[in-house]
Amino acid sequence: MIGKELEVYLHEQIPASKLLGLGVKNCSQTNVELIAPLEPNINHKNTAFGGSLSVIAILAGWSLVYMRLNGIRNEIVIQESSMTYLKPANGSFTATSLYEESTDWSKFHRSFTKRGRGRIKVKSNVLCGGEIVATFQGTYVAFHKEFT
């Protein structure tokens, strides 16, 4: 899957992503990087709205899970999330989620293959001007559509 396909899919499935001006800068099974401009995400302090930073971080993690499942259109939902805001974002910003080989991912894939559902914790960093402005960790649950 190329970035444009993921971007179109996100805009279709999660309309807020289109309203925020979200784009896909990079996507693979090991790295997802999403980008958004400041203008549609601006707050009263002329910096990025915290909710927009949260959305892009959640979607970066969601997209990594999606890519790890080879873009197969299964259901992926966020179950739990935690966001830490470190400094204001005063320009366009990106969210990056990186695959880190671990027993958690092995367990996730085993469970998904065997039971049709799996749970995984994914981290994202939100950057602005090359600096980390927020960190995120979320638990995602993926399941085959017939389990919905």
State the end-to-end CA separation.
25 Å
Number of strand elements: 6
The CATH architecture would be: Roll
The assigned structural class equals: alpha+beta
The total tally of domains equals 1
- Structural shape: globular
Strand order of the largest sheet: 1-2-4-5-6-3
The chain-level mean pLDDT equals: 94
CATH C-level class: Alpha Beta
SS element count, helices: 4
CATH homolog superfamily:
Hotdog Thioesterase
Indicate the proportion of strand residues.
35-45%
- The CATH topology name reads Thiol Ester Dehydrase, Chain A
Helix share of residues?
Answer: 25-40%
Sketch the major β-sheet: 6 strands, antiparallel
Radius of gyration: 15 Å
Low-confidence stretches: none
What is the N-to-C succession of helices and strands? Answer: HHEEHEEHEE
